[in-house]
Amino acid sequence: MSAPARRRSSKAPLWEPGLIPAPGGLLDWRDGKYFDRWQDLPCVLCGAPTPMRSHYGEPAHKVCPEEWITANSVEARLGRFASDVQPQRKRDDDHA
Ligand SMILES: [Zn+2]
């Protein structure tokens, strides 16, 4: 008896994706929806267990898609991995 997978069709995103980071950029996966607290699954990119999920429900450490996007910048534009939708920026004086 295996736990029911909550995976839907791989073509339907689980939620609306935001921007695709530029190669070398970072994903914004701060929202809790990227975190599956029920189980770790093997990352689709490195194979190590991770609780993180993409908007397609693919298990992936945040850093793995970031590296994948950098290495596959053309395919990345298709939107396999994307940042969270940003509400409106409240401040422009980001002194990072
Ligand atoms: Zn990984």
Task: Describe this structure as you would to a colleague.
- This protein has 96 residues and is mostly loops.
- The chain has helices at 63-71, 73-76; strands at residues 41-42, 49-50.
- The chain has a domain at 32-76.
- The mean pLDDT is 88.
- The protein is globular, with a radius of gyration of 14 Å.
- Bound molecules: zinc ion (ZN).
- Zinc ion (ZN) binds next to loops.
Jot down its keywords.
little secondary structure; two-stranded antiparallel sheet; globular; 96 residues; binds zinc ion
Concise structural overview:
The chain has 96 residues and is mostly loops. The chain has helices spanning 63-71, 73-76; strands at 41-42, 49-50. The model has no long low-confidence stretch (mean pLDDT 88).
List the helices and strands and how they pair.
Blueprint: E1 41-42, E2 49-50, H1 63-71, H2 73-76
Antiparallel strand pairs: 1-2
Zinc ion binds at residues 43, 45-46, 48, 50, 60-61, 64.
